[in-house]
Write a structure and sequence with these properties.
globular; eight-stranded mixed beta sheet; four-stranded mixed beta sheet; 7 helices; alpha/beta
């Protein structure tokens, strides 16, 4: 064997044994940073936002100290490079004991987690963001407007066919008996006090103050149902204080009791807020401009049963989810993110009109979230109001 072939084989062995593994290790270590830089470059190239890049934003502490003392104004960015997976998934945490936590009346816990009188900290960035239309294997368009994100093993073709079917209940908009139930498994979820471009990390984004948490969003929905003459119940029990664990067990028991007392109820909407945050600490405030005002974008979640969840009628909820999604998009274009259809439970076995709605995120202002509540209520009133 000549010396040239020996040298070439030695070089090949060195590349395979040392250079390639080292390169892979270095890439894996820096992949998240490369991804953020690439995303930022793409966003700048498309004119969608002006990012602030620190020298090393892998750790939260470094990212916080790297922010300029005067934060740049938040910019509404169009849909492009940030995927829906940024948003964490709502978790249904079971009770830690066999005993279901007892919910508490809102008026009894108002001062337990007070809303901060002031938020002087300025150690995190809030960025406005507008979710738009999505392409990809998981997504399909609804004929009436809006989209569905299919995270199940069911085919898009099958779900598209189901999406055009009418929902499986009748609402009597002229009845004095309640037809709709608005409730909040996580009533203490709250929002920023004003529309701003930074947050104070010492604020937990939770409060038992009913003027600043999810109860106030529910109130706005109900105000519009009143105007439309649709009878409803707004359950203001607090299920996630003092314990977050078991809150779905607590709300389930409450909803079942309400349905037993008022069998006329066909629609049960569990109204929450999301918490969308990039890995380096920037919080997103999903917004849409509706009639000259900013509203917090919303997402409907409709659960699918994989055969283990006790929801044989889950497709009937999906019919309603699609109808509501299209009605909202028809009334208020851009207000919704795609319906999330996934293997979730969220007590959606209790009626065939049971859905979970995420209103905005912890970067949105309370005013934006309450405005969205008003818009939801107007659409429900148009769908179900009597003559």
């Amino acid at each position: 064997m000549d010396i040239k072939k020996v040298c070439l084989r030695c070089v090949a062995v060195i590349i395979v044994a040392f250079v390639m593994p080292t390169g892979i290790w270095l890439y894996a270590r820096s992949a998240s940073r490369f991804g953020r830089v690439a995303a930022a470059v793409a966003g700048v190239a498309m004119g969608e936002y002006k990012p602030y890049l620190s020298a090393d934003d892998d750790s939260k502490a470094t990212a916080q100290t790297a922010y300029p003392s005067k934060l740049e104004a938040a910019v509404v960015s169009k849909h492009s490079i940030w995927d829906m997976d940024m948003a964490p998934q709502e978790k249904q945490t079971p009770s830690v004991s066999a005993e279901v936590p007892s919910p508490l009346p809102a008026q009894d816990v108002t001062d337990k987690i007070p809303y901060p009188a002031s938020m002087e900290g300025n150690d995190g960035v809030i960025e406005k963001y507008t979710y738009g239309r999505y392409d990809g294997e998981q997504y399909f368009d609804l004929d009436g407007g809006g989209q569905v994100r299919n995270c199940t093993e069911l085919s898009n073709d099958e779900l598209y066919e189901e999406s055009s079917k009418p929902y499986d209940f009748q609402i009597d908009g002229n009845s004095s008996e309640p037809q709709i139930l608005i409730y909040h498994t996580h009533a203490t979820e709250s929002f920023e006090p004003t529309d701003k471009d930074h947050y104070d990390s010492s604020f937990s984004c939770k409060t038992t103050d009913p003027e600043m948490n999810m109860l106030s969003v529910g109130d706005k929905i109900c105000e519009q149902l009143d105007k439309a003459g649709v009878a409803y119940i707004h359950d203001t029990l607090v299920h996630d204080y003092p314990s977050y664990d078991g809150s779905y067990d607590s709300s389930r028991m409450a909803v079942k009791q309400i349905l037993e007392e008022y069998p006329s109820i066909k629609v049960c909407l569990d109204v929450h807020r999301d918490g969308i945050e990039r890995e380096y600490g920037t919080r997103l405030a999903p917004v849409a401009e509706i009639e000259g005002r900013e509203a917090a974008q919303l997402m409907i979640i409709s659960g699918c049963d994989d055969g283990t969840m006790g929801m044989p009628d889950y497709m009937k909820n999906f019919h309603f989810a699609c109808a509501l999604q299209s009605a909202l998009e028809s009334d208020w274009q851009g207000l919704t993110r795609p319906v999330l259809f996934d293997y979730r439970h969220y007590n959606q076995d209790l009626t065939t009109g049971s859905l979970l709605i995420e209103v905005g995120s912890h970067g949105n202002s309370i005013t934006q979230a309450q405005y969205t509540g008003e818009l939801i209520g107007k659409t429900l009133g148009e769908m179900f109001g009597g003559e």
